[in-house]
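<instruction>
Derive structure tokens from the sequence
<data>
Labelled lines for chain and fold:
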Amino acid sequence: MPEHATGLDLAGVRARFPALAGRAAFFDGPGGSQAPASVIEAMSTYLRSSNANLGGTFRTSSESDAVIAAGRQALGDLTGSRPEEIAFGANMTTLNFLLAHAVARTLDPGDEIVVTDLDHDANVSPWLLVASDHGLVVRRAPIRTGDGTLDEGALGDLLGARTRVVAFTLASNALGSITDARRVAEMAHSAGALAWADGVHLAPHRRPDRTGLGIDVLLCSPYKFFGPHLGVAAIRQDLAERLPADRVQAADEWPPGHRFETGTQSHEAIAGATAAVDYLRSLGDGSLDTAYDRIGAHEDGLTRRFLEAAPVVPDLDLYGIADPARSAERTPTFCFNLAGHEPRDLAAALARRDIYVWDGHYYALGPMRALSLGERGAVRAGFLHYTTEAEVDRLVAALGDLATAA
């Protein structure tokens, strides 16, 4: 699809990102996106003129209260949640360890948690650790190695009378595969279990709508969707109200989601996260749904372009969904190896050409194990809505040159 046909003003988008002014092609988005000027300015403005702790009687404290309230509203809007259902933290992993610990304290020995081999380890290790502490059982749902998708039928077979949590990813940070979240959530609820989703990788590409997807807890990270380093959890209100929370005594009166925030938050990061949601809204003329429709249309074209061109690169091993006709089932995140090149060496060779990719396992230990990629892992290139067709072509050409030179 031509870039001008998606409703996304790509030239205008790129002009809003200071980092995109140079030659570098940023394909490291699955590890962290670039930030628009509005996000950078929101953070610096807060530190410059409103920096204070909360709850005071003076101007800067009142302004800080307003910044946090706006952040809860913005992230609630993004995730289809109420502001009081939002919890902020240092990062998604820290929040998930805290919340998994809270859930485990409500369970009995022998209760079961289902995790998946598609997930980032941040939605696996917390459950393994609390299971060890509390005598719980962890079961793993496999992926289909042919196309790198979650085997939802096998996941369903693991559910039983003692299943209490189904922890799964909305999209693989390694392979780009998008999970049928509504189906998984329905299966979890049919078994009487919580649907617990990692939305980190999906959020730059599709709206992480907790309520719309039927999810009980959704976690995400603004630095993956054009904001600062920060973690966000959207927790269904009645669940947040009844889970035990580790907190100081004076926090007893806090709203449900806020009970899981420990200590003073990064106010400047929350200001930046609000600006990131506002930026997304601007792509849809004020509508987040329209923005994500436009992002999806543009990224679908990039996905098809790469998948159609990749087969011309000699000895390129691409893992995951490779059929351009199935582009809607994945994000534009590509995991691959090139014969004759170690992943680290290939990433370095691309970096010398101002093409920034990642290498290794990216904490996606399940997919690496299932695909027998071992410690060396693979190279990962991820496109975002600010990626151009010309940049995709640069990547394919560079891989072709390196394959020929090997």
Observations:
- The longest helix spans residues 288-309.
